[in-house]
Structures are given as structure tokens and as C-alpha cells.
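re the bet — no i am not wrong, look at it urself. input seq straight from the record:
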Amino acid sequence: MYKRNTLALCMLIFFTLLLSSGNVLSQNCKAELKVEKDRNFKSADKDGAVFYLVLTNSSSQKDSFIITKSNLITPCNNSTYNTPKSNTELNSTILGSNSKAITGDHVVSLSPGQTYKFQVKVEAPSKKDYNHWSCIEIKASSQNCRNVVSATTLSVYSSDPSEQ
């Protein structure tokens, strides 16, 4: 009798673990992160530059996303302002849907199909940054799946105002 109960308990635990791990594996963590009007390239003037972004949860379940930013060293210039100069790092800030600066991790919970609009403000360049590109990668990472599900690169050209 004891062996039978132990076997039944072991099978119950095994199937419970199997079903719960199957649920984790079947998650379809998908999201789309886009710059409005596909305007990933901008010039920064004395006021800097502002990018408007939209994050959409395109999975079939609610998910929370961590939005992060990082400066890239890889070139992101385009043919209009092509320059062999290395990238410069311009300061940038993520502004939430209320247009207030976000400090630390920015976590957004979205239901399936729901969107979240936010901004990235890039500060005005200094003289040493003129005629350089700044490349900023914005990532949305799923907390359910613990991986990056969408990313986009913002390219900012710092033109010399005396040449305009």
C-alpha cells in the first residue's frame, strides 16, 4: 500500500512539473518596437532630437516588458550624412507616456494587442560632437520569457550649426 501511494505521488508530481514546464515553453513572447513613421534617423540641433516610439504586445498573453537604452559603437550613418568618423555618445533620456523622465528600469505591462507610446529625448550636441553620428539602441525585453523580443536603433547626426 505504501509503495502504491508513493508511486502515485511521484507520478502526480512528475505530471504537474511536466505540465507547468510545458506552459513556460509554449509562451509566445512577441512584441514590436517601432519608431513612429519609421523615422529612425534625425539631425540634432540646439534643442537636441526627440524620437516617438510605440511598443506593441503582439503575443496572445499579458506580458511585462523592460525598456532599456544603450549607446552603440557600430556605425549607423546613412548615405545622406555619411562620415568615416567614429560615433559619439550623446546623452539621452527615456520619457514615459506622461512625458516624465524615467530613471532605472522602465517596466511596462501590456495585454495582448495593447500599445505603449513613449519618447527618447537626445540632448543637443556640443562642439566636439559636430559632424558625428550617435547610435542608440532601444530594447524591449520580456519578463515572461527573459529575453529581448524587439529592438530598434535610433541614429542621430550632430550637424555643425555654423555650416547651415
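see?? Strands lie at 31-35, 41-44, 49-57, 63-72, 92-95, 106-110, 115-122, 132-142, 147-158. told u. also The two ends are 90 Å apart (CA to CA). so pay up
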